[in-house]
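Per-residue structure
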Amino acid sequence: MNPAEWPREVWVNGRIVGRSEAAVSVEDRGFQFGDGLYEVIRAYGGRLFRMDSHMRRLAGGAGFLELGLTPGHVDEIRKVSDQLVQRAALPDAAVIMFVTRGAASRSHAPPEGMRPTIVIYVRPATTPAPELLRDGIAAITVTDSRWGHVNVKSLALQPNVLAKRRALRAGTAEAIFIRDGHVTDCTASNPFFVFGGQVRTPPESNYILSGITREVALELCRQEGIPCVETGVLDTELARADEAFLTGTSDEITPVVRIDGQVVGDGKPGPIARRLADAFRRATRG
């Protein structure tokens, strides 16, 4: 299967069209202003994973940005997402969707009563390579220069893109954001750390995008009887973490074994990260 062949078809504002026919206006505010939201939803074995959680986040963000997304739109997004997954017939798929304020003559102040643009497509999911789960990944820390509403899954991802590029140039896989000495989140994932057998992750706030897989990891900790707390983590504490791992729609649960060139724990994926990764695989793949 060649990922470059996907998406093969795209749902654009009520119509399923071939990839080459899919288009939005050059005056769409998502294109001109980054004025919109996105979601990426996994489908395992043809079943959408945690769709309710994704839709709650999408609807909440759309309400905050006043995009005009109605409950009817959300219901349609649900139905279309499932329809596209079934049509794609992929064993492991990712549903990618964009909701923008819509198209209008360029102005910082949008006119009232705009109709949102909605685009949805499916492609093969990106999953962590087996060796990354076996050996873990390296990460760096970077200053968090994002806006004050990171909890909204906005299209405007320039700081994330720059941080990710910096991480890759450093020979690592991910960048961990630090704001005023506190860990927030990562470019496309949420960080967890283990100290003395207790799992810690930064609490929900406007400075982190609370991921759906983060939510699942917290549930799995409770189910597995692993002590876990949502509390602040200082950058000065990272050097003494026994374990670290990331959670995300694409990353699932991926161990981190090195941060800023310093070994985490014994330099191998820790027992809690491995245990949670196994539990996640059971929850998603049986």
Summary: The radius of gyration is 19 Å. The domain at 3-124 is CATH 3.30.470.10 (D-amino Acid Aminotransferase; Chain A, domain 1). Residues 71-88 form the longest helix (18 residues).
